[in-house]
Amino acid sequence: MKALVKSVLDNFPKLSFCDVIERFDTEDRSAVLKPLMENTGIQFWVNWFYKNTDTFDLLRIKLQDQADLIFSRTDKNHYLIILNQHENITILLNFLEQLDFRRLSDPVVKTLDEKKAFVPFEPQQLSELDAKMKDAMRIQKMIMPKDVIIRKKFKKFFAVHEQQDMVGGDFYWYQETPNGALVSLIDCTGHSVEGAMASMVCNSLLNQAYASFDPSDVSDFVSDFYDKFNAYNDEANEVLNYGIGAEMALFYFDYEHKEVKIASTGISAFLKKKDGVELLKARKIIDYSKVREVIEQTVISMEDISGIYAFTDGLTDQFDSNDRKKLGYKGVRKMIESESDFGAEYYSEELNKWMGENMQYDDITLLGLAI
Amino acid sequence: MPIDENVTNMKSDLEIVDAMGVYNSSLKSYLYKDADLDDINIVESMVEWDCFEATKFLYLDFESHKLFIQILDDKVAIIRLKKKISFNKVLLEHISFKFLSNL
Lengths: 371, 103
Description:
- Chain A is built from 14 helices and 14 strands.
- Chain A is of the alpha+beta class.
- Chain A has a five-stranded antiparallel sheet with strand order 5-14-13-10-11.
- Chain A starts with a helix and ends with a strand.
- Chain B has a five-stranded antiparallel sheet with strand order 2-1-5-4-3.
């Protein structure tokens, strides 16, 4: 257990408290937890922890003074207790998730070096972790299509792509076809590293699904993607008890027939028409096993529209500078109707004006395609 | 706005709510509870030990399910989250806080 505590402190040296205790050992409790008991708010939680008999895997408490108190079960009777006031909580929680506590109870593993038994990687300094996030950002940008390539097939194209962290779950995908172009906007569940890893999986699955692309009906392409997606998730659930989610909109610009074919599992778009701006609100498909049954293709003549604006819900869900009101469809429509320039700069500026000093709550992507 | 309506609005803002309850820790009674929310004992034990005195919110992971509990004064929102679905923690914390502020 000492190696576990050392490993955590090596990676997170600014933790205020970190130790492992046996839940029902009174002596252990008094000696080890004495520093925590000086704080009344924490004292209440420690008392509850010892009196309550429910077995839980993780308890993470955000205290009024912004500190995080964590109880993380390492085995049947032991918990790792952490008080954090200065470390990045997302990175800390991700680290704790990766520690394989179950191996500690394996009698074979106990004979090995304890440090190697449960720590999946060598201890890293926090500055190295930040550098690796930057590397991850570069890799995520590599899967994104180059704007200059997409612009070859459209009058104009722009992308406002703001992840909440350095990396995230929003991305867009592009494929030129013999008679047109495919553009897809995808919002994967999770933020930061989790969302980014999910986006890598989805990008790969999209590339695989393209092999059987039929331009007559794009809903087949979306269904093929989700068939592969569901197969991937089934296996992940079985092995890891974990799955990913992703909603997407796929647009096929068929220049031969002068049509735009659209299929979506939850991502909406605005259409710019001669007489105004129209919302193409997507029906959210929550059960991905039903995609093939329920998904439908919408076909629009290119003569009826001059532009398409596809966006993830991070845009409409963003609260204003007073933190009172969401931007919503109304706000996005207003931006489009008042558009002074069909470009990322205008929309980024409008978004920043809306947000003010408020934080960004989710990954945000807005694609503009002028036909 | 009646509490049922507030709950409906919140559930539509947050797609990951499986079941929820709103508890008043001063009155020691529920202002609202979905029929299938059975995490009463946990919350009441926390109230009994004054755990919410200096707490903003908490996450409690069990093998079978995950709870998120948001506290504002004597109002406690207990939200059981849908299993195996990743979610936006920042949005969950924010919307549940605004929900309690509006009660």
